[in-house]
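Fig. S4 source data, part A: sequence.
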Amino acid sequence: MKETKSRKRQREKHGRPQNMASASSKIKKSSSDFLDKMRARLSGGHFRMINEKLYTCTGDEALNYFKEDPSLFDMYHTGYQEQMSHWPEQPVNIIIQWLKAHSSSLVVADFGCGEVLPGPISIDRLPYSFGDARLAKNVKNKVFSFDLVSNDPSVIACDMSNTPLDASSIDVAVFCLSLMGTNFSSYLEEAHRVLKPSGRLLIAEVKSRFDPNTGGADPKMFSKAISDLGFTSTLKDFSNKMFVLLYFQKKGKENSTRKGIEWPELKPCLYKRR
């Protein structure tokens, strides 16, 4: 039986809005996805630009860079955390466990701690390694947290080659993925200044920066330079795919020949577009 014209018009009348609403919803979703992708791409581009800047300038220049526009610091850490979320294991967690295995009376200096996030911080919930002053939030030790910008009273904003700490006042100095400036050696010299005799220096760095086959520094030369600074090597761990762990202990006697130290160049850790 043929469908009457009135029934056909009635069916089209009720069916058309539903189809149009469905199509409109798909267009909106597609537009939203496109905008999200564009925002992510722009954010990633800004991160890569800031990241390259930090690896290719001095600590003092980086400090002034963020003083001129503090919002760049937040932008950088957001991008860095996204990059770190792809790492299966976080070096800061290993350093936290090291501290928990030692006396909580040890005073710690965290060079390059990042900015503080509001509320309690859980190691299991946060996948990120750098930023948010996690070290201080997850150990019972007294921790002095340093970075280029501070949005929290617990973080001291400064050039890491010139901290406000007294000489021989710290038990443990930590550099977790933070030897970024072209004058990174001055950060390590500052760590030597503030560490007590027999104090510990804990370094975690991106593994590719210590791979001579890809333009990275020779880890033996790096360790020798730190030894010449006045430290003894206690651990070299290259077992992780993403990062290396280099631990040292400050010698009891001061080294009077530190000016002749040959520091290898640490290549910038630059991120490619995903």
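Fig. S4 source data, part B ends here. Residues 89-122+130-250 form a domain with the Rossmann fold fold (CATH 3.40.50.150).
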